[in-house]
Amino acid sequence: MVGDRDGLPLDGVETIMTENPRNQEALSSELPFIDLRDRPSPDILRVLAIGSPQVVHFFVMTLFQYGYARPDEWSRPLPTINQGEVMQILTKRINLFE
User: Fold this and answer.
1) How far apart are CA 98 and CA 86, in angstroms?
2) Taking the complete model, does pTM exceed 0.85, yes or no?
3) If you ran DSSP here, which 8-state letter would residue 74 be given?
4) In 3-state terms, what secondary structure has residue 29?
């Protein structure tokens, strides 16, 4: 299991080192891309949470407790280029005229 910078486990999140240019190629060919292309719409909001897996999970659960978004509305945790860091994306449709 991979650990963060403090040596703590990341609960199954794989971390990819990218200092080596060969790893950059592997990063682009092995990781799935999130397709954010859709029809342009003025009522779409995307929230991006980036941080350690623990902090991102805490943020997602906090928004759930506030009644803003359920945890299953977020993307799965995705690794970033930084070791020990993940991101999750929430896409919400906001009705401005209610």
Assistant:
1) 35
2) no
3) B
4) helix
